[in-house]
Amino acid sequence: MVELYTLNSIIRRRMLDYKIIIIRRGLMKTGLSLGLFLMVALIGGCASLQVSTDFQAGRNALITGKSEVALSYFQSVAEKDPNYRYGTAYRQGVLSYLGRAEYAVGQLPQAQKTLERALAANRDEDLARVYLGLVLARSGERQRGVSEIENGMKGIYGFLEYVTEAHRFSFGRFWDPARAIRSAIQSDLAMISRREFEVERLIVSAEAIGKQMEDEVDRARQDETRELSRQNDGGSSGGGQP
Predict the structure, then answer these.
(1) What CATH number is associated with residue 145?
(2) Quick check: is 15 in a domain?
(3) Element (H, E) at 93
(4) Which tens digits make up the pLDDT trace of 109-151?
(5) Domain count, the chain
(6) What residues make up the domain containing 117?
(7) Is residue 35 part of a domain?
């Protein structure tokens, strides 16, 4: 057993030495030193960490109603990395968050541009689509606004149906377990289908669903973490979010 462990250690060390040689040869071709390469990598890693830290601070501010603070953080992240994405099972881009923060502080024209950019980058950002609909509805474009809200809600409903069915034996069971979000969406879709309704009522409900969905991201992760911890204490394991 000791000999096998020693052999594995030697193999890993040889592989590491080989990787270092390859890196050095590549650096020699480009005229870079190993020290400079490591410095550049370190700076890049620090910048990435700062972006992640700023994003999380912005998201926390948005969730707790500090919209102006959230806006500042999201602007900083979007400038450094406009393609930054957050989440595992339910992924959202920083432009979606930035647009929602702009909506929250009343910057409707800018929010529309930002959310349209978010959807141009990823047309499946359903929460961004809901908020684009909210922006349009509040800006007087009732018909298009209602259409975007409706399509966004259908997308969110579809995601929840998929994740709770396809991953029902693992992390899917932690998403919307009481179907509260899906029930609210069904109610709004039924209201829209009747054609005659108060747009303000839809706006209030859509905003509530947007907040519920954002809260659900954390709630599902926390419930999954608690369950995995309980299972590990009991000697079993569970399936995490991919």
Answers:
(1) 1.25.40.10
(2) no
(3) strand 92-93
(4) 999 999 999 999 999 999 999 999 999 999 999 999 999 999 9
(5) 1
(6) 48-228
(7) no
Helix axes 94-104, 34-63, angle to 10 degrees: 40
Q: How far apart are CA 190 and CA 202, in angstroms?
A: 11
On whether residue 212 sits in a domain, the answer given is yes
- For 57-95, what is each residue's pLDDT tens digit? 999 999 999 999 999 999 999 999 999 999 989 999 999
Within a domain: 239? no
Q: What is the pTM of this model?
A: 0.78
Residue 231 CB neighbours (<10 A): 12
From the list 197, 193, 241, 195, the residue with the least C-alpha distance to 87 is 241
> Quick one: which of 160, 168, 149, 124 has its CA closest to 210?
149
Residue 10 is predicted with a pLDDT of 47
Residue 198 has pLDDT above 60, yes or no: yes
Q: Mapping DSSP to helix (H, G, I), strand (E, B) and coil, where does residue 92 land?
A: strand
